[in-house]
Amino acid sequence: MPFTPAHVAAVLPLRGRPYFPFAALAAGSMSPDLPYFLPFSGSIPRHVTHSVWSIPTWDLLFGMALWLVWRWVAPIVHDVAPRPVRTRWTPPTGQDPAWLGVVAAVVVGSATHILWDALTHAGYLTSVIGPLAAIHDSPLGRHHGYSYLQYASGALGLAVLLWVGFRQPPRSPGPRRQPGTAAAAPAIVIAAALLAVALRVTTMHDPTDRRAMVFTTVTSSISGAALGVIVVCVAHALIDLRVARHHAA
């Protein structure tokens, strides 16, 4: 499923549980797909991160890495985020949650991912459930039933996330620490996403493969956008450090 962020919708019912930090749930729900967004993704077989055994191993490792990165970038992302997002979301504050709760949340999140994919990708479950295994004709061609469920559930997951996000009551977030960085952030992120797509598409083995083209475009755009966010966050942190040193001098 190229709509990896849609997997976060599966853990929304657990939002607000004190023993399951939501950021860790979200990180776990996306962790099995992390290799798809890395430069060496082609060298990692799918079963390495998409099996029951991967949940407490690779998926846990990737999920913890995502959560740790998020803990660092969240305050900066909030400072540079577009106003509709910034007024509806507050980054975590206070002391770090208990590590046991974080680990449990990542495991639960990755388990929802594995279950979702088991019903929407080729595998044992989709081979024994008749409507999912059957091939159906459509204007888009001939596809298995699970393929349609994959695309529909991915689109629905994204729609649910947007709906829940924009239903949050807006609040005044206070002044931005770095208005200039915030103004430049969208251009940096978009440029990084477009550059990543261009680099990946031009190196495809078969540019006429529409399915591969869609997958490559979606995954590379997310990878590029994420890299752009990291660049913005590093620049933001360096500017904060320079300002702090200036005041201390």
TrEMBL record:
Keywords: Membrane, Transmembrane, Transmembrane helix
InterPro entries with a match to the protein in the record: DUF4184 (IPR025238)
Transmembrane segments: 60-77, 98-116, 148-166, 178-201, 213-239
Annotated protein name in UniProt: DUF4184 family protein
Gene source species: Tessaracoccus antarcticus
